[in-house]
Here is the input.
Amino acid sequence: MPVSTGYSPETGKPKSYFDKLQDKANSAFKTTKESAIGKGFISAVKNVTGLDLENLDGSNPDGVHSGSKGKKKAVGKNKKTEDKTQARAAATDTPFTILGAEPGKSKYYSDIVDSETYKSTQPGTEGKKITVGPRPYSAFNKYSLINYRGNPLDSTKDGFVSDVKGNTVYQKINIKDLQNPTVTQIIERTSALTDNYAYRYQYSDFALAKYYGKIPNNMLITLRRFSYPAADDIVTPQALSADGKTMEKIQQPDIARAVTWIGEAPGNVLGEIVKFSNGYSWKDAESTVQTLNSQQGASSGKFGSIVEGNKVLSAMANAGAGRDAVAANANKQNAGFDSFSATYPNHVFGPMNVIKQVLVREQGLNFSQEFKIKFEYELRAFEGANPKIMMLDQLANILALTYNNAPFWGGSVRYIGDGSVAKPLGNLSKLREGDYLGFAGSIVDDMGKMFKGAGAGFGGAAGALMNGDIGGALGALKDNKFLNNLIGGMAMDMFNTPQGGQAAASLLTGDPTGNWHLTVGNPLNPIMVIGNLCMTDCEITFEGGMGIQDFPEHMTAVISLKPGRPRDKAEIESMFNSGRGRFYVQPDDVADINKTVDVNEYGNKDRGGAGKDTFVNNFRKLSNG
Here is the structure.
């Protein structure tokens, strides 16, 4: 039989009360999302929750992965995801062994599944799937895949090319990358990437370095400066193309570099460089007694407000209540008076033995990573070169690495508008030149323009009115600036006046702002790479006795660095992953561990309750059934 709006299309039976409520909600949502305000709200919800409200069928064109699998199945209602999450929660592993299994049969990093998939929203590539592809499960976190990207010189960035024994990059050790390379090997290997100008070395980098040849090069530290902000990955940097549709590879040569080594003797302790702290911001929220003003006056309604605001009517009302002027005035003077605050300053409202404080999350993540790198140089003689000039050359290079040329600037003056309607009548330049006759003439000209503007359009309007054309009359007057200012000014005063504030500053983008980059460890297989560094200080000292050409034998530069902005978890992982992105990626069919509930001081009652956090429903169901 035909199904009306009062019947369920699935069962053919009358809809329940809750089904009808859902229909109303769907209708309201459809109306809301079609409005400008509604679209802004939907966009905000996507940014905060990650849930695609407009595409619950999983089409997800805006690129925000909601985890939806099939029509109208959000993460919290996805049975497949729930089952997979529960299976991962109950999974167990086997004991770890030092020697491991036979070659090609390692049980670690062999459980490979698809990683999370997004859909592109870029013009020309809409709908294209974006994913890092299959990746193995982590050995330590049940709900994450690992995405090791090799070393900076590994341009393939593929950890799944198996060798003849079936091992992948995740299961084998590459002796070629872990050997202690010579300077020649470092220069030759880094120069082999002909399309890379940033990650290179030359013999002069080591010429005057104090600890060259004394400390293995797998303990090398390299600091580079670029002409514009540098990301972690300087081997294969990319930027948006001119049309803004695709990413393309760019060249980014460094403008200065310096090398030193890790160790106690060079003054670069590994623990002080490879160190960072991260955490959350928390604040104390304490329960209190809230003091509210009585709203008895509101119960008298609109007529009561009229009486209260009229002296004659209020006098009559007070007389009817038996109050004279003194009593009525005293009643008003004591409004809002709290006798306990003055009479009992130490009075405690409520029980004494209570717990009344909780910690609640504040906005933002905390990240700190500041360190100093020490560079030392010795005066040395090379065939055909003056040692003093070479040391001065090295000093100038350090200055190029840490400083700039600049002219003296004595300040400036900025003028902003004062809200003046118009300039004074007359040409002031003629007055300054002593041309008084010309100045008087300019006043007459300006007054003529003023009255001409006030009368613009009146002739045409009068002719239109004589013909009964009211619309034509109004059209003739629409360009009259006098009427526009007169009537428009009054309209703005009555209804809405522009605020007149200065233009708001642009929002921050989060793009790199620091021009310095640090490579820690063997350049062929570094411990970590750090981009977006800001140089805050450089202290240069000269020590030792006088050497050749009567110049100090030793020069030391201590450079202080800090990150251009805090890093999140993925960006911390990227430092140790050749600067090529996060180490942990999300499986395509397991609940996301990065989606957690943060409760505020109101217990999330102002957000509709913790049950509204769809993305953690998988874990909640495992906990509560």
